[in-house]
Write a structure and sequence with these properties.
It contains no helices and six strands. It has 85 residues and is mostly beta strands. The chain has a four-stranded antiparallel sheet with strand order 3-2-5-6, with no helix packed on it. A two-stranded antiparallel sheet has the order 1-4. β5 and β6 form a beta hairpin.
Length: 85
Amino acid sequence: ERSYAGGPVTVTVLDEETGDPAPDVTVTKSVGDGDSRTIGTTDADGVVRTLSPAEPYRITVVDEPRVVVVDDLRPISTPRLVDDE
């Protein structure tokens, strides 16, 4: 799910055959044309969390020998308080 710049992003990795959470899988993030940096490995629930950058980014899931890339993720607008009066 997308988030606003600086907001939380939850990456959930599931086994494509069973649908079960995939623990201990490396997840990386690259911003713009930058190099990928590891954001962590998934926990027992197949989850790793990071913060959304202010520009488009890519998430890569590396579970040797499989690699999945989710490209051109864009943050949504920052939520603002609205005065309803």
